[in-house]
Write a structure and sequence with these properties.
Protein name: Lsr2 protein
Radius of gyration: 20 Å
Shape: globular
Number of domains: 3
Strand order of the largest sheet: 1-2
Organism: Kitasatospora paracochleata
Helix content: 25-40%
Structural class: alpha+beta
Distance between the termini: 53 Å
Order of helices and strands: EEEEHEEHHHHHHH
Number of helices: 8
Low-confidence stretches: none
Length: about 180
């Protein structure tokens, strides 16, 4: 006897016909969240307006000389950018000293080390990675190519080049390349 699993979006209850269209959402902070982060799933199409609603936030740590623990502050990017007076904030950040990435302690939860990166989010879309590029990631890159490239450049990662046939094929950018009058290498 066989079994059939029918999946639905946790957000809208909409039937999921193709698991490849599901986006994993980890909710880390919410006023109604009581016992730590939770995971839900939704269709990529349900999240397309999310970018329009999202706030550009900056998370910083303040390391005061009289305190052992840093103070974490979250504020709007525009407010943070106004703090830079001598040069634009993007220039200040490009010239800033890199902070060494911390290695999780051995006591850290093993699931944290295995948490997968969601390339179908604007925070990670377009980054080089192994494996399949999902339709959701392709859509985000197509719709927000300039913003994705700007983020990649700030992060010091290769940008997506419309003259690069591999990039165009990977992200389905053929039409965008034609619109911009770009010929492939």
């Amino acid at each position: 006897m066989g079994q059939k699993i029918i999946r639905f979006s946790d957000l809208t209850g909409k039937h999921v016909e193709d698991d490849g269209e599901l986006v994993r959402i980890v909710v880390r902070q919410h006023p109604d969240l009581e016992d730590g982060p939770v995971e839900i799933e939704a269709l990529a199409e349900e999240l397309t307006t999310l970018e329009e609603l999202a706030l550009d936030l900056v998370t910083i740590e303040l390391h005061h000389p009289d305190s052992d623990e840093p103070e974490t502050v979250v504020l709007e990017a525009e407010t943070f950018n106004r703090l830079a007076g001598a040069a634009p904030m993007a220039e200040v950040l490009r010239g800033a000293k890199r902070v060494a990435r911390t290695v999780p302690s051995q006591g850290a939860a093993p699931t944290a080390a295995r948490e997968r990166v969601n390339y179908a989010s604007l925070d990670h879309a377009g980054r080089p990675h192994k494996g399949r590029t999902t339709d959701a990631e392709k859509l985000l890159v197509r719709q927000h190519l300039d913003a994705v490239n700007e983020r990649l450049a700030v992060e010091g990662i290769r940008t997506i080049d419309l003259t690069n046939a591999e990039h165009v094929a990977r992200y389905g950018l053929e039409e965008l390349a034609r619109e911009r009058g770009v010929t492939l290498d």
